[in-house]
Amino acid sequence: MKNLLILHASQIATPTGNSIKHGREMDQIKCISDGAIYVENGTIKEVGKTNDVVEKLKKNNINKFDQIINAAGSAVLPGFIDSHTHFLFSGYRLEEFCERVGGSTYMKIMENGGGIQATVDETRKASFTKLRDSGMQRLNEMLQQGITTVEGKSGYGLDEKNEMKQLEVFRELNLIQPVDISVTYLGAHAIPREYQDKADDYVDLMISKLLPKIKREELAEFVDVFCDKGVFDLKRAEQLLKAAKKLGFKLKMHADEIANLNGVSLAAKLDAVSADHLIKISPEEIKELSKKENTVATLLPCTAFCLKENFAPARDLIDSNCGVALASDYNPGSSFTCSIPLIIALATFEMKMTMNEVLTALTLNGAAALDLANKKGTLEPGKVGDIIFLKYPDFRYLLYNTGGNLVSKVIKNGELVYES
Question: pTM of whole model > 0.85?
Fold first, then answer.
């Protein structure tokens, strides 16, 4: 038995429960001063006031520990969950990023041969080892931000060989480093160059060959589609997602980012686990989403910021009783960052979310966006022991010390895996 005891935390701050928090529920955070957490074999067993937890352990004759951490002066939180990323790729896009900052647009760059296809070309050339090593570096960067679970999408291969290569790298990375990766197949990230005038044929290829193969080899849990102007229209998105659902995949959607194609309505109709981006979501779609108990609205403020777009209407979504998660969209084109501090600053200052809502969005609702809310996202008995420590005694310093990374320690499955 391996066990860990955390004592005298200045504050334990956590949402509670085993499912997505909607609307005003997102603002309900449990805070414990002089708190303690006992973790056994990777699972949280006790959480409460230090004296209460110590007395309970004594009564149960638990008095030997593999590690004891005195958390005095630190706020202790659930590990952050980044539920939307494209972190596995080769092919940076510095020049086009600077072009866009200078006034060009995402769609104009795509039309001129840049965008996703530029990274596809380089990812196809990259070896398995090169992708694995760069993926490892980015996961280490995430861990230092307090991210203990991340979603990783394929979508930079756009053919059988290279999509499988990305998915196989994810599988190896899950075995050799501490951050948990929830894997998503995103072959419908863009229409590849060789299928430019044959989009239907590409969708047929994914449905007839790639989806069954990925399911058979258990390489992905989710299937996603970029449903938007210039990529996959609503009809093709629905065709692909219905086929994926029939095979037993869970669904996610890039929806209403560049234009409104009613992608959120499709996500709601198909019971997708999440609908992501939502910059152009309509009031009608907000109403539809508010009625879906298990579809998370995942908002990506770093992308809107880097694209110089309006931010997704977080306040309208929350006030309409939707469940909102926040994620980085870490990718080489529109959001080359996994910065939790930047997400927090943008979500509060620009999107008018409260700090309590932000904490829920980055933990429990992030877990719900990966169908993991019954296992992760809170500090409660029965949950996985994924815990982060801050350099300050109150979680609101994440906002107050604007833009600073305050994570001092990271516990993963009950074991210390990072210390600043």
Answer: yes
d(CA 176, CA 141): 15
Vertex 32: Cα angle to 143 and 413 (nearest 5): 30
Work out whether the CA dihedral 393, 62, 4, 26 comes out positive or negative.
negative
Joined tokens for residue 290 = 């508010």
Edge-to-edge strand order for the sheet containing 407-412?
A: 30-32, 11-14, 75-78, 387-390, 407-412, 415-419
pLDDT in tens, 36-66: 999 999 999 999 999 999 999 999 999 999 9
Report, as an integer, the average pLDDT of 332-336: 95
Query: Has residue 108 got a pLDDT over 90?
Result: no
Q: How far is CA 203 from CA 136, 138, 211, 224, 271, in A?
A: 31, 31, 10, 13, 21
Structure tokens that stand for 371 in this block: 């169908």
